[in-house]
Design brief:
The complex is a heterodimer of chains A (about 270) and B (about 300).
Chain A lengths: L1 H24 L3 H4 L14 H8 L6 H32 L5 H10 L9 H10 L6 H5 L7 H11 L3 H9 L4 H12 L1 H17 L2 H6 L8 H11 L4 H35 L2
Chain B lengths: L1 H10 L12 H28 L16 H6 L7 H34 L5 H13 L2 H11 L6 H6 L11 H27 L3 H9 L4 H12 L1 H16 L3 H7 L10 H11 L3 H29 L1
Helix pairs in contact in B: 1-2, 2-14, 4-8, 4-11, 4-13, 5-8, 6-12, 8-11, 8-12, 9-10, 11-14, 13-14
Classes of the chains: A mainly alpha (about 270), B mainly alpha (about 300).
């Protein structure tokens, strides 16, 4: 019983701020700025959501939502394709320079992510991708996590299946498509969710490569909202809710996979 | 495209060997390697080149200045010296203050969640949920919760502390919000580590008459050493990389004391367009982190 008391108390600390944000998005502006503050709206109203979805040319919120969806889905698909192909080679094939290549790729996981942001910005500029959705989709897919994660999973698959298939004249492309990928559905699903989450939540890269409100995603959009509707807290919280609900639902549906995937990938070097 | 070629080159060699066409591995790797070279490797190398120049994004001329950008960082009379080291200090403080909480608290929660009981998955999900949110959402929420006039936190505590604009409260806010946000991640890593500790060790400890505490000290903690190393390393790296909280929550307030190195570097490079100087700063920060990581590895290895 003591365990539950402690857990419930902790759970309140973790969840209350989320519920409070949801509640605030349903308050009127007068109620949101009332002192003392109310925890849950006394007279719930959807006004904030109306204002939010109406948007303006400076704050096209639905457009941001669509951009977030396109960028996160696009990058997720790209990550799945390029990482699974590379991970197959690193886990299943022999070739010169494999160890060095794997070492270099994994080594980048240990380098603080933001230190190369300025040269990366210059390269994206040279490619003419600044202020476009391409800049939000492609460069981020070069991360090493997906390759590392899938390689670890592929290493654990039984080799006998490959060998039997090779005996029957299949080539590696067939094995990859018909054996490896179907057996790796849990790992692919985990990587898909993790990739989607990280792109959906990314704040730092979009604020530097995107300039026009039309190409913003929700996270940088939220920081504009804060300026545009300076004191309209319900609208700002409605924006926060809009940005969180999709990922919270996605997480709730895939919780077991995601938590398992994170815990396994980090540890089994 | 690549995949079609892969098919063509491997179809001929249908022998039961570990690999068929010589090019096959490279064809599988090609799409990723192109991305990796252009967006990871090239920036890492190009950054060095940029750091050796007086590089203004908006100007045509970018004169070569050798190591000037680096020496300026160590010259107290230069324009960047004071601000750069203040930001490095802020990063150091944040790391020093947040890492102990992010190493110890998740361990406690993982211990609570380790044994099977009803609702375990549910609680695991709850503690992990904030981690799923983005830094923009987290900071927006907490800015309002910590507002000295309208915020719930001051009202509940019966205080009127300016959490985000004064010291030392700015640090309390940054560390507190970060712990709330990311604690679930480390908790999950610990849980995985605990499941890998052989049950026999616990049974043996019981036979020896070990109590809960002795069991924790002599079985759980030693069993978690590799996991701890992983947690400490990734947490130090994440803390040293801290950007969003400082940028959105305290905005460096009160006078730049809570502006972290990454915020300062990116402001110099992409805000003020002093990209050469900013790149030099990135490498100095990276070097500092490598030193910290090496010390970290030594400490953990030394004890085992």
């Amino acid at each position: 019983m003591r365990r539950y008391t402690v857990l419930v108390a902790l759970a309140v600390v973790f969840v209350a701020p989320l519920l409070w944000a949801l509640g605030t998005s349903l308050k009127s502006q007068t109620e949101a700025t009332r002192v003392p503050p109310t925890v849950w709206p006394a007279e719930p109203t959807a006004r904030a959501y109306g204002t939010l979805f109406e948007g303006t040319t400076q704050t096209p919120v639905l457009r941001w939502f669509a951009n977030s969806l396109i960028a996160a889905t696009g990058q997720m698909l790209l990550v799945l394709v390029v990482s699974s192909l590379a991970a197959y080679a690193l886990a299943r094939l022999e070739f010169r320079g494999k160890r060095v290549m794997f070492g270099v790729i994994v080594g980048t996981l240990l380098v603080p992510g933001f230190v190369f942001l300025i040269p990366a910005f210059l390269i994206v500029d040279a490619l003419g991708w600044l202020d476009s959705l391409t800049a939000l989709i492609v460069p981020g897919a070069a991360g090493a996590f997906g390759v590392f994660f899938l390689r670890q999973f592929f290493l654990g698959l039984p080799r006998e299946l490959d060998e039997a298939a090779l005996m029957e004249g299949a080539n590696h492309w067939h094995i990859f498509l018909r054996i490896t990928l179907p057996l790796s559905k849990p790992a692919l699903a985990t990587l898909a969710v993790l990739s989607f989450l990280s792109n959906w939540n990314d704040f730092i890269w979009p604020i530097f490569v995107i300039f026009s409100p039309d190409y913003f995603t929700l996270p940088p959009g939220l920081s504009i909202l804060q300026g545009a509707y300076t004191i309209d807290y319900p609208v700002i919280m409605a924006g926060a809710v809009l940005a969180s609900v999709p990922v919270l639902i996605l997480f709730a549906l895939t919780q077991r996979y995601v938590i398992e995937g994170i815990s396994r990938s980090g540890l089994k070097g | 495209m690549t995949t079609l070629t892969a098919k063509a080159s491997t179809a001929r060699a249908a022998t039961p060997v570990a690999w068929s066409g010589r090019a096959t591995p490279y064809l599988f790797l090609a799409p990723y390697l192109v991305l990796f070279c252009v967006f990871v490797l090239a920036p890492a190398i190009y950054g060095v080149w940029v750091s050796l120049h007086d590089w203004d994004f908006l100007l045509e001329g970018r004169p070569f200045v050798g190591l000037d950008n680096y020496t300026a960082l160590f010259d107290p009379s230069s324009a960047v010296y004071a601000d750069f080291w203040m930001s490095m200090r802020a990063t150091g403080w944040f790391t020093l203050l947040s890492v102990p909480f992010l190493v110890v608290l998740p361990l406690g929660i993982a211990l609570l969640l380790n044994r099977p009981f009803r609702g375990r998955t549910f609680f695991r999900g709850l503690f992990f949920a904030p981690y799923v949110l983005g830094v923009a959402v987290v900071c927006l929420m907490w800015r309002l919760l910590l507002d000295p006039n309208l915020g719930l936190v001051d009202w509940l505590l019966g205080t009127d502390i300016a959490w985000t604009t004064s010291l030392p409260w700015g640090w309390v806010a940054l560390v507190g919000v970060t712990v709330w946000w990311t604690l679930g991640f480390n908790g999950v890593i610990y849980l995985a580590g605990m499941q890998d500790i052989p049950r026999e060790l616990y049974d043996a400890a019981k036979v020896d008459g070990a109590g809960r505490w002795a069991e924790f000290r002599h079985v759980t903690l030693p069993g978690l050493r590799p996991v701890m190393l992983f947690v400490v390393t990734t947490t130090v790296l994440a803390s040293a990389n801290m950007f969003g909280q400082s940028y959105l929550l305290t905005q460096g307030a009160p006078g730049g004391e809570t502006r972290t190195a990454i915020v300062y570097i990116l402001d110099q490079g992409l805000g003020q367009y002093k990209m050469g100087s900013a790149s030099a700063m990135s490498y100095v920060l990276t070097l500092a982190l490598i030193v910290v990581s090496v010390i970290n590895f030594r400490l953990f290895r030394g004890r085992s």
